Amino acid sequence: KNEVEQSPQNLTAQEGEFITINCSYSVGISALHWLQQHPGGGIVSLFMLSSGKKKHGRLIATINIQEKHSSLHITASHPRDSAVYICAVPNQAGTALIFGKGTTLSVSS
Amino acid sequence: EPEVTQTPSHQVTQMGQEVILRCVPISNHLYFYWYRQILGQKVEFLVSFYNNEISEKSEIFDDQFSVERPDGSNFTLKIRSTKLEDSAMYFCASSEGLAGEQFFGPGTRLTVL
Hints:
- Chain A is mostly beta strands.
- Helix content of chain A is about 0%, strand content about 60%.
């Protein structure tokens, strides 16, 4: 069974700071998901990546398949980035996602 | 933009009652999922569904739970006899392909009294 660990658990930043959230997993996977959960509870898919790097606006996700590690970076953070960021990986059959506990990010102005 | 919808947004029920949570997945998606999140805890997988069959279910998904695709658009989760510990946010998700990107609905908050 794949174990997904995220760090840090909580993160406080000032507006404009560069943010890094880390995710490691124990069993090799085909792809990794980064998701954002808003304070109201809704979950939004940010990235699904299987190698290298993906960028969307101020968000960058990287993955190192050999080291079983991924990072989510936010450049020029803004208060509206405040949310829980969750890393998730598929089970071996690809029929379910296994979630990390999430990183709670709070950005103040 | 297509989205997954869920109804109701909030359901309050008495312990022992049956509840049905409804989801409308994105129309061209073939894989459907239910997840739950107990307050303050991580999201947990319940069940996945493809081609009118359960593909995978977790240990949480016991005989009290069932899923159904009663027509071409709805995907439902039924809890037969609710317990206090079933109180959680329930998320439906869908994906186009196996192990593809999953799109989540807004969730149904279930409160069991």
